[in-house]
Amino acid sequence: MSLNTDFMVKVAQTAIQGVPVTLQIVLVALLISLPIGVLFALIRIYRVKGLQRLVQFYVSLVRGTPIIAQILIVYSAFPSLLNMIIGKAAFSINPIYYAYIVFTFNSIATLTEVFRSALQTVDKGQMEAGLMVGMQPRQTFWRIILPQALISALPNIANATLYLIKNSSLAFIMSVKDITAIAKTEAAFNYNFLEAYLVVWVYYLIICYGAEIIFYLFERYFSKYRRPIKNRTGFNWFPFSIKQPKLEQK
Amino acid sequence: MLTIEGLKKSYAGNDILKGISINVNKGDVISIIGPSGSGKTTLLRTITTLEEANGGRITFAGVDNDFQKLNGKEINTIRRNVGFVFQNYNLFNNKTALQNITEGLIVARRVKKNEAENIALKALERVGLTDRKDHYPSQLSGGQQQRVGIARAIALNPEVIFFDEPTSALDPELVGEVLKVMKDLANSGTTMVVVTHQMSFARDVSNRVIFMADGYIVEQGEPRKIFENPSEERTKKFLTDILANV
Ligand SMILES: Nc1ncnc2c1ncn2[C@@H]1O[C@H](COP(=O)(O)OP(=O)(O)OP(=O)(O)O)[C@@H](O)[C@H]1O
Ligand SMILES: [Mg+2]
């Protein structure tokens, strides 16, 4: 078996047009779901009457169903729904909007849980200290609590983003022309599926690696203030060794 | 200046404070002592509105009302006129020592940034930490963190500062530096209410000692009187026990 490298180059060149589409889906979903995730997390933490049940139900609903089922449902339900509201125009809507909807809904659920646990890692003494220097609860939340929660949430946000990037490849089901969809179409012309999929593979690897680096830099920059503690208190003992591990100090 | 009458507090049906009355005058340095679980922390937290009281009255900074009837404005007034030094420091972890102090000045008091920094630097100087101004709490020792906590409180120039066992989370060798700062404050006329297990502070620095047990004030008076000639049997027993351990 030999790989048709010329074809791979060709697919790479065509599929690169899908990169912005993939990034767009990821960014839109992230930017919308970050604030809503914080809001939903707060609703759960403060047990806001009525709403808290709703959020809990929403989170279980999204987390308890495969994303492919969510995609199929949104993709078949929304056009006809919209058709009832705005008429025929509904069918000429760019399918990328359906992708935005599915992936945003999806990451809201993930991030709600991420922020809920992150907010709960912030000591309640931080709020009390804010009140005792005369700040309002709202001010203390924005300036003291939320920044700390966001930083401790960063690894999990990074995780959620990587899943989002990879899941976004399912957008081809909704005929969104992302990396996967383009490569698939190219492959179908020539029956060079393996080559096309290898290209897809490399593209996602690069995007995910890029995202990892960005998050790593974020984390390094923002967690300046707690680096010394981390080294001392994190788990670092190899469970099968009798001696304490030697760790270099950064 | 601060008067509390008949303060009551219960948690889930358990009465913790059973009618406490205190009068704090300007310049007072009051030590509150008493066995663990007697309600000392709860007392400070209810006075400063961190906890809601179940009864009693407060007269302070223009507020004169039942604890349970305090409205938002009155609560803000109380909070703006007290300082609080926490047992576990509670410095803002995402702020440097200097920012910990300027935060309240800038956000709550609307002081201009460079002016706030000047005030903060002066406060840091008083606690001897000018050279640590750009350190984050995680980069400071417990004693240094607590001194920043004290600087944060004094920078706002409150009517009265409450201390909840400010040295009890510290390693023994760090207790001294914090006590020294508190002594300096006391000598410069700062009004202080200090919950403490440091009998030397209670005896030598404060002008009044309050002995609490089981949610009541059992006895209060000048340190000399409390330590040398307590009138209540409970006070006597507590002091013998605690001094035996020193
Ligand atoms: N949030 C709470 N919920 C329920 N019970 C509480 C709460 N906070 C305090 N208590 C109870 O109130 C009582 C008094 O507690 P408090 O912390 O005021 O005592 P303390 O005098 O400060 O003791 P220590 O010297 O150990 O600090 C204790 O029995 C404690 O269990
Ligand atoms: Mg206490």
UniProtKB/TrEMBL annotation, chain A:
Spell out the InterPro entries in the cross-references: AA_ABC_transptr_permease_3TM, ArtM/GltK/GlnP/TcyL/YhdX-like, MetI-like, MetI-like_sf
Report the domain of life of the source organism. Bacteria
- Report how it sits in the membrane: Multi-pass membrane protein
State which residue ranges cross the membrane: 20-43, 55-78, 98-119, 140-165, 196-218
Q: Does the keyword Membrane apply?
A: yes
Location(s), subcellular = Cell membrane
Coiled-coil positions are none
The alphabetical list of record keywords is: Amino-acid transport, Cell membrane, Membrane, Transmembrane, Transmembrane helix, Transport
User: Which family would the database say this protein is a member of?
Assistant: Belongs to the binding-protein-dependent transport system permease family.
The protein's name in its UniProt record: Amino acid ABC transporter permease
Native source species? Sporolactobacillus shoreicorticis
Top-down, what is the taxonomic lineage of the species of origin? Answer: Bacteria, Bacillati, Bacillota, Bacilli, Bacillales
From TrEMBL, chain B:
* Record-linked Pfam families: ABC_tran
CDD domains referenced in this protein's UniProt entry, alphabetically = ABC_HisP_GlnQ (cd03262)
PROSITE patterns per record: ABC_TRANSPORTER_1, ABC_TRANSPORTER_2
How does this protein lie in the membrane? Peripheral membrane protein
Organism field: Sporolactobacillus shoreicorticis
Q: Where is the signal peptide?
A: none
**MF terms (GO), sorted A to Z:** ATP binding
The name this protein carries in UniProt is Amino acid ABC transporter ATP-binding protein
Where in or outside the cell?
Cell membrane
Which residues belong to any copy of the ABC transporter domain?
A: 2-239
Q: Which UniProt keywords apply?
A: ATP-binding, Cell membrane, Membrane, Nucleotide-binding, Transport
